Amino acid sequence: MDKKIFMMVIMMITLGCSGERYADKAMACLKPEADKPQRISDMLKSFRLIRLETTEQSLIGNHIGKIKKHHDKYYISTDRKELLIFDKNGSLVSKISKIGNGPGEYVQLCDYDVFENDHIAILNANELIIYDKEGVYMKNIPLPFMPFNMKIINDDSILLYTSGEEYMIYEIDASGKVIKGEYKNRPSAQLGRNIAFVTYGDSKVMTQSGRSKDCTFYDFTTQEFDSAELVCDDILTATEEESYMKTYGGNYLENLSHVKCIDGISGCNTHLLFGCGSMQDGFNVQVLDIKGKRIEHVISSNDINDITFTSPFFMGYASLAESKDCFITYAFPKDIQMGLEEHKAFSEHPNYQEIEKLFSSNTEELQDENPCLVEFTFK
To answer: What is the pTM of this model?
Structure first.
């Protein structure tokens, strides 16, 4: 399998077995019907493209760390250690770019999240730095350890994902004091990801142990943790992964290409997206209906992406985005333009014509343009 496609797909979550039902704390899965190509637009209830403006101040570059949609604004962290904020039409509203060691400055933007009142928290080593909605520095919250992911639960509670401590997950209060720890530390769980806490329905977030099927849930309503196994027996367990890592190191999949694994989760209040398979047998993307606990759609490399006309696995980048009511992925305009050129057989397709109007420039003119966000929901 092409390495680039693998990295895109493996950033989502795997299920790859028969359609039998499992216990309450597990989820059924399906084998894809890869020989029956589908149009991705037929799976969606809605979608729209948001073309981000490209100026010297708004330039994102080739790498996005994380996208968060909050109150119709898009917060995007970059490898330039900046946090850019765009409105619903793709215009730059403001940005935070405060590299340094002084008050309100950070050495590294490890992660970020947004409070309900639009105040912003940036995770910098062993502290949280709080800014108002305009990006003006407000205060620092010292932390007793060095986490690498965060999730704001409410004004008085924040989840932190860490390593090298007794637990992997800690809940802290607004002053940085630990409320409780959960999920015993293990080497396999330390595999970093851009988003550790993924939306699961209306009242939960979930995190995952490495690439295994073992997951931990946090319920906003009860303020309690719970554990669950995703899918069936042939998917990697946390115990197996720990054993593989001791033998082969973090790149164990290169030596064990037959192993089916889970790596990353992308969710909203209605569905989960996940990539399923192994290096040896290839991958597919499955769409889980959270309420019904059943797979509604399976996306394979044979399907037709009539949304951006790029790879069918363009949804893979949804694992870098967080939103309660939709999924968000992105594609670069130059790739969309190339996709239009390669799929001229679809020139009468309404989506093709709309995208052609949006990206009427030639590929060279689009070379340095910011990525285009794609916001979508499933039926």
So the answer is: 0.89
